[in-house]
Amino acid sequence: MSNNNSTNTSFLNDAGNRALIFQAVLLVVVVAVGYYLFHNLQANLENQGISTGFRFLNEPAGFPILIHLIEYTEADTYGRAFVVALINTFVISLMGIVLATIIGVIMGLARLSQNWLVARLATVYIETLRNLPLLLQMFFWYFAVLAALPHPRDSIIFGDFFLNKRGIYSPNPIFQDGMDFVIVAFVLSIVAAIGLIVWAKKRQTLTGEWFPAYWTSLALIIAVTVLAFIAAGSPVEFDLPQKSRFNVSGGMVLVPEFVAVLIALSTYTGAFIAEIVRAGILSVNWGQTEASRSLGLPDGLTQRLIVLPQALRVIIPPLTSQFLNLAKNSSLGAAIAYPELVAVVMGTTLNQTGQAIETIGLCMLVYGSLSLSISFFMNWYNKKMSLVER
Amino acid sequence: MAIEFKPSPSLPPPQNSVGAVAWIHKNFFSSPLNIALTIISLYILYLLVPPMVQWVFIDATWSGTSKADCTAGGACWAFIAVYFDQFMYGLYPEAEYWRVNTALVLLIALVAMFAIKAVNKAMLAGVIILVYPVVAYFLFAGGVFGLAVVETANWGGLFLTTLLGVVGIVASFPLGIVLALGRRSNMPIVKSVCVVFIETIRAVPLITILFMASVMIPLFLPDGMNFNKLLRVVIGITLFSAAYMAEVIRGGLQAIPKGQYEAADAMGLTYWQSMILVILPQALKLVIPGIVNTFIGLFKDTTLVYIVGMFDLLGRIQAANHDANWLGTTTEGYAFAGFVYWVICFGMSRYSMAVERKLDTGHKRK
């Protein structure tokens, strides 16, 4: 019957055929437009005398970069400058993610607080920061707050810390010979602690006897590391910042560009995370808490074993997109000269070499892979935490 | 004699569980931790609020011609007063401000007409989307009916911010619908084209798209053909927000039960008929809050055009900060910009919450 019908319909009225034709047309259009743009590109590049390719990465860059965690001088290549910028982007993104999560959790819990005043303060914080453009906040921290700090000769001093226009100066730890021993001891103590937790859990499932594994392992790690540190003869010396008449030298310095980007990114994203945390906790039915209480669990365990695991399921997917946003928003650092990827590659390198396609392509590739890796990791974590239905 | 049961009147609740005293006790002093939190909060308020009030109002200077007039030690609002026109209109010629104002009033009047019952809503929407942009463009740019030409390079301030935001969201809306439908299509090539477009754009920051618009688009055009920087940036912003819009709309499409699709098919509607008459009206209604949120995000993101050399509200403030007469008024400038952005964004987010409540007609589980 149905075969009979389909032979009667005209060729164009068949849904399958129409889909085929439509897709063929789309494909032709996409390819044609792509070819046309590519053709124009080649002609334009030829006219302007720009040679394509990534050879420029091996040429000397000739510009300084303010913050570099690996060795870098002006004589180094564009390739090395790219790596330096890449590291800067990673560092600011990672530190931002950690700080924003801490701020977000605290503010989210504060907004749910029993205390009326605390809840209102958290609400004001969240609603203010969420509704202001991030770039404005970065400018505010950089040009209004940090630029208003005193000159180096009038630095604000807290013990060995100095605060002035040029940044925050702190003691820089320099590791001496015995430090390897301390690090080995630290790693071993962590391994032992994990073993202890596994053992405690197994024993609890077998015998029902409970052992305070988390506190014990924390104490274990601290004790072993401190003992090893003393045994090795305290192998750390500090390079203290010294204040001369007009300047502060030595020590470790956090430049204002870095501080402004970090504060702006983490407080801004923190406000969004706070809302996510609040929504996650509110999504757990109150009956769960009541049931847990009637089983006799104390409040702390109720939160840790009943409410939090269920809230996390709601929290994680939007949290992922906030982390992604933060990583992408770190590119705004370019506006206040924090030398991250956009500033170095799409700014200086592009201006000096004119390789627009390569530099912008490189940046998009990096952000693309950064986004993908964060979302892969969070998807894995999400799967691990998600409801296992029986 | 029948015994009548007379319950004795209820006792009043204990004195310490109702009224202001109980409320204060419960919210501020119910436990040692709570007391500590109250004290800390009060201390934070004490640190922040009095100096801020002092700076913003009491010690502020409201008029003057240079920083030297601001001697009271508080905020120098005279700076904002002097630069107010620039912050609003950029370098648009002063004699032509009425054109921007007219366009704005016209838009508000048109949108307000939605509230009138007798007006045909579809026609009104058509006028706003198709006719109004043309009128507004000629008002802004001039060149017809004896209006003086105003170069787009002179458009700036809050005017440019609003323009970018509104054009970005309106133009990205149809594109977003097409992309969302394409992503849910059964045709593999259509689907993959849409997925690649959406995911590529969402993976990169707006700043790279803006750089692309300002540096790379000219390279892809045939020799001699070039268009205005503002238009290039608008295209960039539109493509960017279309990808986000598509994801919001896709959420709405997924929330429509399968029965609706099947019922539309069973009625013999074609694909486009069933989408336009059955699915999209329901799906779009569900995602209005999401669309408003996308708009808020886009509105805040328009500040990024400053990085590619256009002077929106924030850009004009940055430029004004370099005025030698007004050195040291950075904070005032940012406070003013912050106030404007906050009022607009917060207002829109409240609006979206109100719409959400109004449209919550029982689809969701309560």
UniProtKB/TrEMBL annotation, chain A:
Q: Which CDD domains match?
A: TM_PBP2
What Gene Ontology cellular component terms go with this record? ATP-binding cassette (ABC) transporter complex
The question of whether Transmembrane is a record keyword is answered with: yes
Enumerate the PROSITE patterns for this protein.
ABC_TM1 (PS50928)
Name the residues that span the membrane.
20-38, 82-110, 131-149, 181-200, 212-233, 253-274, 356-381
Q: Where is the ABC transmembrane type-1 domain?
A: 86-378
Keywords (A to Z) from UniProt: Amino-acid transport, Cell membrane, Membrane, Transmembrane, Transmembrane helix, Transport
User: Could you tell me the superkingdom of the organism this chain comes from?
Assistant: Bacteria
Where are the annotated coiled coils located? Answer: none
Q: Could you provide one GO biological process annotation from this protein's UniProt record?
A: amino acid transport
Offer an example of a GO molecular function term for this protein: transmembrane transporter activity
Q: How does it sit in the membrane?
A: Multi-pass membrane protein
Task: Tell me where in or outside the cell this protein is found.
Answer: Cell inner membrane; Cell membrane
InterPro entries noted in UniProt: AA_ABC_transptr_permease_3TM, ArtM/GltK/GlnP/TcyL/YhdX-like, MetI-like, MetI-like_sf
**Gene3D superfamilies cross-referenced by the UniProt entry:** MetI-like (1.10.3720.10)
Q: What's this protein's family per the entry?
A: Belongs to the binding-protein-dependent transport system permease family. HisMQ subfamily.
What the entry lists under NCBIfam families is as follows: HEQRo_perm_3TM
- Protein name according to UniProt: Amino acid ABC transporter permease
Give the species this sequence originates from.
Answer: Maribrevibacterium harenarium
Output the lineage of the source organism: Bacteria, Pseudomonadati, Pseudomonadota, Gammaproteobacteria, Oceanospirillales
UniProtKB/TrEMBL annotation, chain B:
What keywords appear on the UniProt entry? Answer: Amino-acid transport, Cell membrane, Membrane, Transmembrane, Transmembrane helix, Transport
* Signal peptide interval: none
Domain ABC transmembrane type-1: residue ranges: 158-352
Q: Which domain of life is it from?
A: Bacteria
Q: Which InterPro entries does this entry report, sorted A to Z? A: AA_ABC_transptr_permease_3TM, ArtM/GltK/GlnP/TcyL/YhdX-like, MetI-like, MetI-like_sf
**GO CC terms:** ATP-binding cassette (ABC) transporter complex
Q: How does it sit in the membrane?
A: Multi-pass membrane protein
* Protein name as it appears in the record: Amino acid ABC transporter permease
